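Workshop exercise sheet. Pairs work together: one partner reads the sequence aloud, the other fills in the structure field after running the prediction. Swap roles for the next sheet.
Pair: D.N. / O.F.
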Amino acid sequence: MKDRTLVAEALGSAEPMERLRLCGWIRTRRDLSGFSFLELNDGSCLANMQCLVDHGTGAHEALGQAGTGAAVSVEGELVASPGKGQRWEVRVRELEVFGQADPETYPLQKKRHSDEFLRTIAHLRVRTNKYGACFRIRSEAAAAIHEFFRARSFVWVHTPVLTGSDCEGAGEMFRVTTEVGGQDGTGREFFNRRCHLTVSGQLEAEALAMGLGRVYTFGPTFRAENSNTPRHAAEFWMIEPEVAFADLADVMDLGEGLVCHVLEHVLSRCEADLRLFDEYVDKGLVGRLKEMLERPFARVDYAEAIRILEAGGKAFVYPVAFGMDLQTEHERYLAEEHFKRPVAVYDFPEEIKAFYMRGNDDGRTVAAMDILAPRIGELVGGSQREERMDRLEARLRKAGQDPENYWWYLDLRRYGSVPHAGFGMGFERLLMLLTGIANIRDVIPFPRTPGSLDF
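Structure field:
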């Protein structure tokens, strides 16, 4: 490890190196008269390092029959390459094979594989150009999210994965069942009550914001929605900031700022990886991402959004009517065709939103917002939270929830309540925006979807 050089570092070297050591996997091997060319990749960047192994040397003898997929270490000299399209190559002096890959059964060959096929070998697909680039972008996007919140004095908090509360009130939660004692079937629940995997860390984040001021969570969440659409997964990651002494306008600004910051970061740090997606996955991707940064996001209230949809003359699968929840086709029309940029829709009817959203003075709508993005639809969903005790209790009962189950959440309104607001952003949907990948299964290393729990 100490003397190992990454391929990305070697390719970016300003001058030749007399000695370096690279470790990686052989992408291709070409045997010519007197020498062999290896294309070596270690996952640090999109490009491969060309390594030249002279025949008749100890390095060539050690190479043996190792080919595509084999893991090797090479040591040698970094020299200027006479070939086109590459600045450097390695003249190999020593070589070690760590692990062979049987050419008859190794499933990744030098050709384009379909996404459907690669999902069946999710444990190996990261070695392809597309998925290596995707997961490097995922890493950079995550780093940018933490960078954004740290620069604004947010505290990163960790909320429970196991919960007894239904945050969304939709009942689409995975139940966790473990009995203790009573092997004859008379055992009790481990927690003495029903336990589920969380669909959101919001409620706990609100509690932490009531003492820390500005907090955010960034972790896995789970939804037992039996949906096999390209936009839904059973396990996904969420970014959920909560801000005390804030209102809806504050978190609309925060959501827009976060999206723009991540876009800027990835555009500057992942240029080569983004070019791959622009060329092979979604033509014009980079240009569209840059365009999103050129103008502020549009903002429109729900009632006006419905009027725009009704006047657009488009035949939607789901007819437009006031009081309906916007469908993906409506969201994309607003962002792609009408505003031609991301748009925040706010002040939704109370009936279609969760119990914790603050009621507006009109008695019909709540201070909620969704940020809609071209080609994605809803990217961010948030609200000002209901800080008034009596209003929150009434909303809980109306939603069919027992206020007693939320005693601690109500305490936040009982002791030093303040206006506060927050949102949730689906990390995988953000990655779909950044890469142009159309299926959420392809931006998660090991997707969990209905009927699928492999790997």
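Discussion prompt: The chain has two domains: 7-106, 125-442. What would you look at next?
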